[in-house]
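Researcher: I've been going back and forth with a colleague about how Alkylphosphonate utilization protein might be arranged in three dimensions. Neither of us has a model we trust, so I'd like an independent prediction. The organism is Azospirillum griseum, in case that matters for your notes. Sequence below.
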Amino acid sequence: MSDAMSCPQCQSEHAYHDGSLWICPECGHEWNPDTAASAATDDDSVVRDANGNVLADGDSVTVIKDLKVKGSSLVIKGGTKVKSIRLTDGANGHNIACKIDGIGAMDLKSEFVKKA
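Model: Here is an independent structure prediction for Alkylphosphonate utilization protein. You can compare it with whatever you and your colleague have in mind.
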């Protein structure tokens, strides 16, 4: 059994091939290694707003709730429109870099904006 594969959930080495799927007898997880690899790369590279719309560089977004600016007394009000966003791989889930009028350069989380 030279083509054995380990389970991506529990790392068990007892997974077996059944038709088009691999099955783990220890945790019950079933997966297709071809679609699992492509789904993982698709999910990592796509940034979505609070409504599930795909965001891209240069889009305009609207902030959906009041956001406190950490280390400052400033607040970004809900409904603030942000133009020309840039998608990044920022820390702590802050995956949007932008400039907000009256505040300056900021990093935002995509879960707090909607596509305008």
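Researcher: What would you highlight for our discussion?
Model: I'd start with this: The CA atoms of residues 61 and 116 lie 5 Å apart. After that, consider the following. The two ends are 54 Å apart (CA to CA).
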